[in-house]
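Crash report, auto-generated. Payload:
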Amino acid sequence: MSEKEIKNLEEIFEQRIANDEKIEPKDWMPEKYRKTHIRQISQHAHSEIVGMLPEGNWITRAPSLRRKAALLAKVQDEAGHGLYLYSACETLGISREELYEQLHTGKAKYSSIFNYPTVTWADIGAIGWLVDGAAIINQVPLCNTSFGPYARAMVRVCKEESFHQRQGYEIMLTLSKGTTEQKALAQDALNRWWWPSLMMFGPTDAESVHTEQSMKWKLKRKTNDELRQQFIDQTVPQADLLGLTVPDPDLKWNEERGSYDFGAIDWDEFWQVVKGHGPCNKERMNARVSAWENGAWVRDAAIAYADKQAKAKEVAQAS
Amino acid sequence: MEHQSLYQYLLTLGDNALILGQRLGELCGHGPSLETDIACTNIALDLLGQTRSCFQYASKQLDGKSEDDVAFLRKENEYTNVLLVEQPNNDFAFVITRQYFFDVYHLMLMEWLSANSADETVKAIANKAVKEARYHRRFSSDWMLRLGDGTQESHQRVLAAVEALWPYTQEFFVPSEAEAWAASAGIGPDLASFKAAYYNDVEALLEQATVPIPENPYFQKGGKQGRHTEHMGYLLADLQYMQRTYPNMTW
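Recovered output after restart:
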């Protein structure tokens, strides 16, 4: 294809996105669009399956049968999200094995929030309330993103996430209405999860490298700082309702802006975790890699068995 | 007296589901593939649902108890699950073999209860569970075949699991006091009558999976009487952790 022809295709492509048309896997797309989408969708898929680990940590110790069932179902939903996000990603011409390889070698990232430990039951409530709450704010705009398979996956993901968020908030509500010890568990969890949740929206706009292009392709509709502000404004009244204190002495309602002012985020901590040195980065990666490696003989067995069955069928048909 | 007997019988039904569900719950996020992870979690969820139905009904037999009291606040020797279900997740071959050995029995039991139990609530619980048990058995049978007739490694691993878990299969068919009471009241089956059909099914599948049938004639029992293997205490330490650390609270 000549340069002119490519340029022409690119113009048509950008026009389609501007017209809110969906791009489908078999449509022509610029290489950069394909790569950016593989990066973002796989990062999202990896976050879902790594995210199963901190919460899975409490399945065996959940305090009641009802909570145990709800937590199991939630973690299973995350596996499901991972599955259809990987599938959406595979339509862009990359295999699941390659995607796992990128995760296991550290080439691909996942949400840093999952590198924090879940040390009490209240963390399960805090994750649902704050982490899923932040995820929803990040993800709802993606239901209208330009790449069809991703947009459709996000519609379902968001529905389930908002259910998880209510469930998490309900755990926090139960704790905050409970005994002194339970209230202390809830407050301690908020103390530990608040700042990492704010970091989930990524670096400040001034530092963010992918924003402009992503806006054009509708992979992003608001900036990191706008989304973070939205999260804070939405979450602070919920904390008030729980009777819990947000661990930010600078947090204050700003009448003029109609928003909360908040204290400085510790970006050194953010970058430390992103670069692989958070409290649980190594544990999370070890858990994923060993699940994959220990499962190799199982996956091989399934393939070998399917081959044998196929051959037996051929022989039976030939005779 | 009758309440007490029914309570004990419901424990034997619920404990198998609870303890196996707990074991499967340990695996969530660590399976060999996303698909098997989702399937094992599904089975755990079904079993946990059955546990809740059994314990909600059990708790009504004793004044002032909740399903969670029944599930979390007994001593080890008061749990009446069979020894098979508490065996650890050594590898995926153990997980599947344990599941398969349980599922064949579980489906027979649920089919009988849903068709014949004289207790309407037990019948209704089994009526829902029978569909789930049918799916579980299909899942574990399919994997027994894949592992048995897959690669040399998978064959060796499933062989080891079958040999290790085989001695725990006969306990199903030796009725406890509560099960004998249930049989005499028409609430539960005569378990001994399941035995021939169980081994017929299991041996046929093992043959198809090219796994030799173990010749070991020695079997283990005691779970139904509360005498458990060394694994049980650790499993309960996790299961009961919150209820023991923070007693008398609502979650």
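Post-recovery validation: Chain A has a mean pLDDT of 95.
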